[in-house]
């Protein structure tokens, strides 16, 4: 085990969104989870109690703003406020899954830009840094006036693909917006690239798909930042199989898996769906044999350690 300098000012705190991931991060760091509770009043209001001194400490609050998104976001904001009032020297909001990220621009008149609103809320609450993983759009980093470290699950996912998937692989972007992400995966894996031209008729609804690139006889690996209702993913798998792909895998950092997602995956052409533990899975997802979950705890722990020690974070992805 590598010997690291003593990190006596490091504190890790969390809300209730993903306790298993937080415990795994603490094990990787070799530090205990800070004592405290996040509970409810009888009317549902959130109350935070911190049971140890945070004065002068460099605190990392780990909280995904996943379902229930509003509750987990409020927990995070209230924890940050409590730490600010407890005189913490730094408050680093570690958000493995950044909710509301899909609302990053005005897509219609009088529409909100909620990803920017959340950025404002975190900053006003007292966060001094944000650590996020696989943001839906990279420009969300610019919504903050505080430092943002943008992490990627690609090292974990690429290692799995190279070890467990054989054959002639082609990395597939499920839409034009994900081409840069797919190109990065294809470059790291040394494979070809294909793109699906997707036309939507409404939110979570896909009207038409066309494949750009050579798929015939290949093992297709669809990469995306998240899988929500799995409509795009399963329809893409069907189209790729029709075009001659031998097997189709789905890779994503965030397994939102809402609504009919599990049923669609079970009844799809997908060989396997590989996601990370940035979002805790429900019982149905955990029992689905086509879903495999990889832990990003070592990656997040390494990023926290590097931030604390003042080392480079970007070299994690070179």
Explain this structure to me?
The chain has 318 residues and is of the alpha/beta class. The strands form three sheets. It has a seven-stranded mixed sheet, sandwiched between helices. Strands 1-4-5-6-7 form a five-stranded parallel sheet, sandwiched between helices. Strand 13, helix 8 and strand 14 form a beta-alpha-beta unit. The protein starts with 9 loop residues before the first strand and ends in a 9-residue tail after the last helix.
Please summarize what this structure is:
The protein is an alpha/beta fold and 318 residues long. It has helices at 19-29, 69-85, 114-125, 154-164, 179-189, 231-242, 261-266, 283-286, 297-309; strands at 10-14, 36-40, 46-50, 58-62, 90-95, 129-133, 148-151, 169-173, 192-202, 205-212, 219-227, 247-255, 272-276, 291-294.
């Amino acid at each position: 085990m590598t010997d690291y300098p003593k990190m006596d000012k490091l504190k890790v705190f969390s809300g209730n969104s993903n306790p298993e991931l937080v415990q795994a991060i603490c094990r990787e760091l070799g530090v205990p989870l800070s004592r405290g509770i996040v509970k409810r009043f009888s009317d549902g209001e959130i109350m935070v109690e911190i049971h140890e001194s945070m004065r002068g400490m460099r605190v990392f609050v780990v909280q995904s703003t996943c379902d229930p998104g509003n509750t987990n976001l409020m927990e995070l904001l209230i924890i940050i406020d409590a730490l600010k009032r407890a005189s913490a020297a730094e408050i680093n909001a570690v958000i493995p899954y950044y909710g509301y990220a899909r609302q990053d621009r005005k897509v219609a008149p009088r529409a909100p830009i909620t990803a920017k609103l959340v950025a404002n809320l975190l900053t006003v609450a007292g966060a001094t840094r944000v650590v996020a993983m696989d943001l839906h759009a990279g420009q969300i980093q610019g919504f903050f006036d505080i430092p943002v470290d943008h992490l990627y699950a690609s090292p974990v996912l690429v290692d799995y693909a190279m070890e467990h998937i054989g054959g002639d692989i082609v990395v597939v972007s499920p839409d034009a917006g994900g081409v840069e992400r797919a190109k990065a995966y294809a470059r790291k894996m040394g494979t070809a690239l294909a793109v699906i031209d997707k036309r939507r008729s409404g939110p979570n609804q896909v009207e038409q798909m066309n494949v750009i690139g050579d798929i015939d006889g290949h093992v297709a690996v669809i990469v995306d930042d998240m899988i929500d209702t799995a409509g795009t993913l399963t329809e893409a798998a069907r189209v790729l199989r029709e075009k001659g792909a031998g097997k189709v895998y789905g890779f994503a950092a965030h397994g939102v898996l809402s609504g009919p997602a599990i049923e669609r995956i079970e009844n799809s052409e997908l060989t396997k769906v590989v996601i990370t533990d940035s979002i805790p899975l429900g019982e149905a997802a955990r029992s689905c044999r086509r879903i495999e979950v990889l832990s990003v705890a070592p990656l997040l722990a390494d990023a926290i350690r590097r931030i604390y020690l003042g080392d480079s974070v970007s070299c994690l992805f070179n």
